[in-house]
Amino acid sequence: MNTAPTQAQVKVERQGAACRITIDRAEAHNTMTDAVMVALTEALRQAEAMEGVRAIVLTGAGDKTFCAGGQLKPTADGSPFALEPGRFDNPVAELFRALDRCHLPIVARVNGSAFGGGLGLVCACDFAIAAEGAMFGTTEARVGVFPMMILPLLMRVIPRRRLLEMCFLAHRFPAADAERFDIVNCVVPAAELDAAVDALVAQLAANSPVALRIGRRAIGAITDLSFNDALNLAQAILPVLSQSEDTREGMKAFAERRAPLWPGR
Asked: Which of 41, 104, 127, 141 falls 20 to 30 Å from 200 in CA-CA distance?
């Protein structure tokens, strides 16, 4: 295991074909401050620059909490959100954009509970595997706010009626319900979490990095398009992908009945 230079309270570690990014604030339930969100955004760039990395694993330190969301502190007027003239994008928006633009598949290793912005992080990832004891929820309405910044992410993953139930009732629910709502791919005993994540990374690493990179971007682009526009974009992307060295190697390996050796180009 190689450890890359870290930002404050965020660890970046190379683990075989994966880069693990950890919010290292277990004593504060891995909440996200502005500094943590900036560091997470930078960590994604570090991971993308690591040669041979085929996936990113996003997790929290300890075994209690994946991420309890943003660290909210009331300002002088009693609001937890400060208005800064001239600053439109806040760090959480930049982080979610970076997650969306990332060219590597991202796996959420949900080692513990995920609330508010932490649930948004889970939904921003391509895959999520949760420990059995993890709890989930969007409880912002209990303190007079609403999960605005994570709504675009939740709406991509969670069926509308379940989403309304979660946001309006502001209750917490167990990992089994998170799997039923399609928030996580599967739930495993805590002792088996790393093995399950490693197995998923191995499956991702067996496939063409170019195909996964272009496919990830295509899914993001097609999601919000009309049916006809989605088909137009798909038919424009496919010939570009087919010119890659990965495609040529994949086709050749298939014909020769062997495992491909992906050049990643």
From this structure: 41
In which band, very low, low, confident or very high, does the pLDDT at 82 lie, cut at 50, 70 and 90?
low
Give Cβ neighbours of residue 32 (< 8 Å, ≥ 6 apart).
Answer: 23, 40, 67, 69, 70, 71, 92, 117, 118
Is the dihedral angle over the CA atoms 135, 141, 145, 146 positive or is it negative?
A: positive
The reply to whether the predicted model has a pTM over 0.70 is yes
Dihedral angle over CA of 170, 172, 175, 179, nearest 10:
-20
Phi first, then psi, for residue 16 (nearest 5°) are 65, -125
Evaluate the CA torsion angle 95, 100, 101, 107 in order and state its sign: positive
Q: Which two three-digit tokens encode residue 190? A: 């805590």
CA count, 13 A, side-chain hemisphere, 207: 13
Instruction: Please write the tens of the pLDDT for every residue from 168-201.
Output: 999 999 999 999 999 999 999 999 999 999 999 9
Instruction: Identify the CA nearest to 68 among candidates 135, 12, 131.
Output: 135
Edge-to-edge order in the sheet of strand 18-23 = 2-3, 10-15, 18-23, 55-60, 106-110, 127-131, 186-188
pLDDT tens, 92-141? 889 999 999 999 999 999 999 999 999 999 999 999 999 999 999 999 99
Question: Using H for helix, E for strand and C for coil, what is the string for 215-242?
Answer: HHHHHHHHCCCCHHHHHHHHHHHHHHHH
